[in-house]
Amino acid sequence: MIFYEIECLTCKQRVRIEEGTKLYKQYKENPNERRMCQDCVEKIERDAKKQLMG
Ligand SMILES: [Zn+2]
């Protein structure tokens, strides 16, 4: 299994990016972009939706 390890920008947890995942694809396309773990990404998406609704 190929994977990279990054530090989440928001919660500072170490995150393992495994081959075949969405994060891995994003990482390969743009390795220097700031990264967040899946939990934080989902949290931000939820917050964004809440704001949209109101
Ligand atoms: Zn995080």
Gist of the model:
The chain has 54 residues and is an alpha+beta fold.
Structure characterization notes:
InterPro entries: DUF2197. Pfam families: DUF2197. The structure is a single chain. The chain is α+β, with helices and mostly antiparallel strands and about 55 residues long. It has one domain (about 5-54). Helices cover about 45% and strands about 20% of the residues. It contains 2 helices and 2 strands; from the N terminus they run ββαα. The chain has helices spanning about 20-30, 40-54, and strands at about 5, 15-20. It has a two-stranded antiparallel sheet with strand order 1-2. A hairpin with a 6-residue loop joins strand 1 and strand 2. The N and C termini lie far apart (about 45 Å). About 10% of the residues are buried.
Which terms would index this structure?
54 residues; alpha+beta; two-stranded antiparallel sheet; 2 helices; binds zinc ion; DUF2197
Write the layout of secondary structure elements.
Blueprint: E1 3-7, E2 14-18, H1 22-29, H2 38-53
Antiparallel strand pairs: 1-2
Bound molecules: zinc ion (ZN).
